[in-house]
Amino acid sequence: MILKKYAFFIVVLIIFSSCSKGDRDSSDGAFGDKKDTKPYKISKDLEAIKEDGVLHAITIYNSTSYFLYRGMPMGFEYELLSRLAKNLGLKLKITIAEDIDDLFDMLNNGKGDLIAYGLTITEPRKNLVSFTENHYVTHQALVQRMPDNWRSLPGYKIDKQLISNTLELINDTVWVRENSSYAERLKNLQNEIGGEIPIEHIEGNITTDKIIRMVVDGEIERTVADYNIASINKTYYPILNIDTRVSFSQRIAWAVRQNSPDLLKAINKWINKEKQSDDYYVIYNKYFKNTRSNRSRIKSDFYSKNSNKISKYDDIIKENASEIGWDWRFLSSQVYQESRFDPKAESWAGATGLIQLMPATAKEVGVSNNYNPEQNIKGGVKYLDRMRDNFETVEDSIQKVKFTLAAFNCGAGHVFDAMRLAEKNGKNPNIWDENVEEYILKLKDKEYYLDDVVRHGFVRGTEPYNYVRDIFLRYDHYKQFIEE
């Protein structure tokens, strides 16, 4: 490798004064400048979204935006989206794009209302979408591998074997995803330094995380990534060097359709308010700066990027889910709701074990040791089956599951009371959604729990209501990441 250290100050000047429009990237890269006319095929602004009651967001499955860890959906984008949806009074529905190139088409074809992903604000992209206020600022960095024996070498010897300024990229290949703005940046850089940088293109649906891992494994020599993403990877791959900048600072933001000005205004108002809170920066640091948690997560078998596992009890849950005819991922969601997969968990009411059986219930279903995972799950499924038998009049299978979960949580008697109240007030007693669930909530009010059709009195209806809702929402996440 021919070193040209003497030209370093020239390179810095070139980089920070000559970067052309559109050379920035998102956290994983697509350029996205496909059209210069109005690209959207749907008109849906905030009012219509609120009528629908759901915020449909599009993101990418990667190590910082959205993933599953120990049964819990996580990610920078996921946590912020959850807060945004709550702020707007909406339910959240997340759709995963296959790769970066799909994000813009999915948005403008109406498959989502918001791209919740780290997009670099560029002029070409402004023809496609309206950008929100930026979430953070980063820059592109060269990602390369240190020498194998780097720990025993003095710094100057390491420096000799690394590319430390962009002039040294002349005639040295860089591997990047095709059609990404990482690739676009390298093309512009060639013009700026007056020399050829051989570019090898990688398949479009391979994430930046995976490409960086290819550098670690020696499959490729170097790539380009946003510095904050490269920095995350360096925490668990110390052999990486990410010190060489290839761009100036970039604003990273989300995006909405150009014909959604009210949604854009609402999101920007929320972002500006969030940035004044400590929580916002705690969330950022959690995914981009907390090296200890990032390192432990990336090594875990229960990190969805590593395996198709939810918990160490998957095999037990699979075996018992088949007994009741449920998707094992759904039963896993219930177990997480009950105990977060802690077999020693105990509730304030005295329920114990993975699926939280009361002592009397455990005895009733033949469980002698409630802390034994096999016994506890088996007994819990047996009890679920008994609860399901109470709702033979409910024909829809999904609705029947919701009644079963509610009865498991608060007792079948209270669910029967809510069904009778629903029928008395002109609602369908055999549909949970927007019918019986409304009256399970009302059973905390004296006006309703003293009604003559109510036989089991007061109950905190928010508990079974949230129980059913949260299990189904989590199951939606599990289906995104875990194969059946």
Automatic annotation (TrEMBL):
It is found in: Cell outer membrane. It is a peripheral membrane protein. It holds the Pfam family SLT. Residues 57-291 form the Solute-binding protein family 3/N-terminal domain. Keywords: Cell outer membrane, Membrane, Signal. Gene3D superfamilies: 1.10.530.10, Periplasmic binding protein-like II (3.40.190.10). SMART domains: PBPb (SM00062). The keyword Signal applies. PROSITE patterns: PROKAR_LIPOPROTEIN. InterPro entries: Lysozyme-like_dom_sf, Solute-binding_3/MltF_N, Transglycosylase_SLT_dom_1. Its main location: membrane. GO terms for cellular component: cell outer membrane. This is Membrane-bound lytic murein transglycosylase F. It comes from Salegentibacter salegens. The lineage of its organism: Bacteria, Pseudomonadati, Bacteroidota, Flavobacteriia, Flavobacteriales.
